[in-house]
Design a protein that fits this description.
By secondary structure, the chain is mainly β. It has one helix and five strands, in the order E-E-E-H-E-E. It has a five-stranded mixed sheet with strand order 3-2-1-5-4. A hairpin with a 4-residue loop joins strand 4 and strand 5 (63-71). The chain is globular, with a radius of gyration of 11 Å. 19% of the residues are buried.
Length: 72
């Protein structure tokens, strides 16, 4: 797994729960289907990181801590 970029599929863990997201362009964004825009707050925070990284996504409600498990 290289660095997260447009088109990457990212497996992650937040608070012990695993999930998967695909980084896409804003026109393809569909958060309910696990496709997030590279320019969204989560997308911006994840892009450039690699497997094993811990990433903090700052939101108005709280800071969310993502552990990147796999990038493909």
């Amino acid at each position: 797994g290289g660095a997260i970029s447009m088109g990457s599929v990212v497996r992650f863990e937040v608070d012990g729960s695993a999930g998967e997201l695909t980084i896409v362009g804003s026109a393809e964004s569909d958060p309910g289907a696990g496709k997030i825009s590279a320019v969204s707050p989560v997308g911006k925070a994840l892009v450039g990181h690699r497997e094993g990284d811990d990433v903090v996504v700052r939101t108005p409600a709280a800071d969310i801590h993502y552990r990147i498990l796999e990038v493909r």
